[in-house]
Design a protein that fits this description.
By secondary structure, this protein is largely without helices or strands. Helix content is 0%, strand content 11%. A hairpin with a 5-residue loop joins strand 1 (3-4) and strand 2.
Length: 108
């Protein structure tokens, strides 16, 4: 059974019974967001996690992240909004607290 979030959508986590995998080795990953979950102007995430060949988390820091636009603080008239890019790595991934989210304008 899947646990559900406050909005009724299932909360899921990738699972695997393999102890190792064969994968691609790379130095950078580009995540292109093609659509949003209903908001035509903004997109957000609460976490980003990359796994190594043994399915263990790869340690990341905010220096590893970049986005364009970086967050809503790049909008005219917006200052000090807490929903910044480094929140993807703060360890809080299942939340409805804005202080643990990233929000950026959705650019097609």
């Amino acid at each position: 059974d899947l646990a559900c979030g406050i909005d009724g959508r299932p909360l899921t986590r990738a699972r695997s019974c393999r102890t190792s995998t064969t994968g691609t080795v790379c130095e950078s990953i580009t995540l292109v967001i093609h659509s949003t979950w209903g908001d035509q102007f903004y997109v957000g995430l609460t976490a980003l996690e990359l796994l190594d060949g043994s399915l263990l988390p790869i340690p990341l820091t905010s220096a590893h992240l970049d986005a364009w636009p970086r967050d809503v603080n790049e909008l005219e008239g917006v200052d000090h909004d807490p929903r910044t890019l480094e929140k993807l790595l703060d360890g809080v991934s299942c939340t409805d607290d804005d202080r643990h989210m990233w929000l950026t304008p959705f650019v097609k």
